[in-house]
TrEMBL record:
Pfam families assigned: MFS_3
Protein name: MFS transporter
Key word Transmembrane helix present: yes
Gene Ontology CC, one term: plasma membrane
Transferase as UniProt keyword: no
Transmembrane regions listed in the UniProt entry: 17-37, 49-71, 112-136, 196-219, 225-244, 264-284, 296-319, 339-359, 365-383
Membrane topology, as annotated: Multi-pass membrane protein
UniProt subcellular location: Cell inner membrane
Keywords associated with the record: Cell membrane, Membrane, Transmembrane, Transmembrane helix, Transport
Domain of life: Bacteria
Predominant cellular place of this UniProt entry's protein: membrane
Amino acid sequence: MTVVAVMLQVYEITHDSFAVSMVAVAGLLPMIVAGLYGGMLADAFDRRVVALSAASVTFASTALLAVLTWAHVESVWWLYVLSVVNSSANSIVMATRSAIVPRLISRELLPAASALQGISFGLMVMVGPALAGILVAVSGYAWTYTIDVILMSSLFLGLWTLPSIKPEGELVRPGLKSLADGWAFLKRASNIRLQYILDITAMTFGQPIALFPAIGALLLGGGPVTTGILTAAYAVGAFTSSLFSGPIGRVRHHGLGIERAIQAYGIAMLAFGLILGAAALGWFAPPDVGPHSANVVLIVLSFIVISIAGACDNVSAIYRSTMMQAAVPDAIRGRLQGIFIVVVAGGPRIGALYVGTLATITSLWFPPLLGGILIVVIVSTLVRLNPRFRAYDAENPEP
């Protein structure tokens, strides 16, 4: 809810898609630092305590956002600053939680656990953005942030009920040596390294979420409601693919699965660009497209292709997460998960800069169309140059 509400509020203040994209870009460097440091903390201390501490910062930043909005003293800079704090703390939470999972279940259940993560993510992002769009339109930003603060209490309940989980093996205190050990392992782990590169490629060229406020206001119509619908479409695809993900756990060649899923993601982004191009030409458009008049046909088609993209991304995420958790030793898993979170969260922020800049120079439909083509070409080339990745066997996981 907060992510979409902040994007909408920045767009309302500035009417500038580049300013919306900067919400994500501004948090990139702090998030990278927090993700890396959070991974080191997860390999040095009780992972439950680390996750709870970082979650407290996430909660406080959202609460302050609500207070400022109720007091009518919010500004673009406050939105940027609190988004940076929120994303940085959340990257520590995610890195630590991911490092915890393999300690709770057997290796055979890791694909199922990743699928359950897709279900929970799907529910969160299906309900959150759609509800944010409706709440912003009906009751304003202050109530939207306040409700999200209340809902975030469930995060503390989930973390609080975990047992104490200290890292296995040699403990290395956070610092340059700890970070160097993580990077040295990644340098040797060609399969893990390539999956990072493939994910960055997909998220850099295939993440048009920063364009959604402008698309809802200018191209497809419907305003904040359309923004919420398009954002939720990712989660609908992730949720649906997770519900039917049983066969994924029986696939042994995870590298090949990642390649195919990301290629399909690129094709879906290409289709979304074509749909937006049709909207720019006026296909199926009602008179005076805008916040109160929507191109329903093309919104439905956009929802479908973005849902397909979300499903493909989730399938790739299940394979990537399983590979990470099965092939990386526990003693270094936190640091690798920290790098992984930086990749997962950093890619979309670079992508926001890509789509925001290119859309400003050209038009709203061009970034996803070009991005889809680039994803398919780059992924196919990289995997072809690394045959060991395609041969990865989940029965004998090798990083």
